[in-house]
């Protein structure tokens, strides 16, 4: 790490929070944009039977612990891909949310692949 220039794209509205020492913030992991290296990051299971059945967004939350600055995004890449996918035409010419799942999976796979350098050319 060191000084330099970065280009950052956070989707939707960006919310900035300054966390005090020991202050905790529970958020969906996909909404974490950037954070200071002093922020502690952990994943925890959301307890409760009702959350397991009716949670909808998943069973896990990111726990951010201060001190430090964090920027959260309101529309992570998966949500953005699903929103775009609603307007893509199906084979019959109509748009549908069913396409969104494939588009979202492709977008997330491409992003993760580029982050971790797992292209088809890198495999042995």
Describe the model.
The strands form 2 sheets. Strands 1-6-3 form a 3-stranded antiparallel sheet, with no helix packed on it. It folds into 2 domains: 14-73, no CATH class; 77-119. It is flat. The protein has 124 residues and is α+β, with helices and mostly antiparallel strands. It has helices at 49-54, 77-85, 98-116, and strands spanning 14-19, 24-27, 32-35, 40-45, 60-65, 68-73.
Biggest sheet, in brief? 3 strands, antiparallel
Q: What is the total domain count?
A: 2
Q: What is the percent of helical residues?
A: 25-40%
Unreliable segments of 5+ consecutive residues: 118-124
Widest sheet, order of strands: 1-6-3
Output the radius of gyration. Answer: 18 Å
Number of helices: 3
Order of helices and strands: EEEEHEEHH
- The structure class reads alpha+beta
Number of strands: 6
Termini separation (Å)?
30 Å
The gross shape turns out to be flat
Question: Mean pLDDT score, rounded?
Answer: 75
